[in-house]
Design a protein that fits this description.
Layout lengths: L7 H31 L10 E4 L8 E4 L10 E3 L1 H9 L11 H4 L4
Antiparallel strand pairs: 1-2, 1-3
């Protein structure tokens, strides 16, 4: 079964409509590519909890992710790991960002 018109005039009309539609689709693609090129990349993911220190004489501390006191290369932790670290007393909470309060311990 053929779904195209059998005569030349209707085929030419269909061709014109398809060409016009393709031009509109290509223009929209170009617009979106320009917008994407001008959009800055999203910021990197910030973990909810991080552990700082513990190396070269630095005392370890637990921080809320994004805390400026966490240093240059803090280690990301899950919520459960952060809770465990605070409840077993192995790591103190940062007095600036107060992860213990954020975790609901105080």
């Amino acid at each position: 079964m053929n779904d195209l018109p059998p005569d030349l005039p209707r085929l030419r009309t269909l061709e014109t409509w398809l060409a016009h539609t393709l031009d509109r689709v290509r223009a929209r693609i170009a617009d979106l590519e320009r917008q994407t090129a001008n959009t800055p990349p999203p910021p990197p993911h910030v973990p909810d909890w991080v552990l700082s220190g513990g190396r070269a004489g630095q005392d370890p501390a637990l921080h809320v992710g994004g805390c400026g006191m966490a240093g240059k290369s803090p280690r990301p932790l899950t919520r459960d790991q952060a809770l465990q670290a605070l409840t077993d007393g192995s790591v103190p909470a940062c007095p600036i960002c107060r992860p213990d309060t954020e975790l609901g311990l105080l």
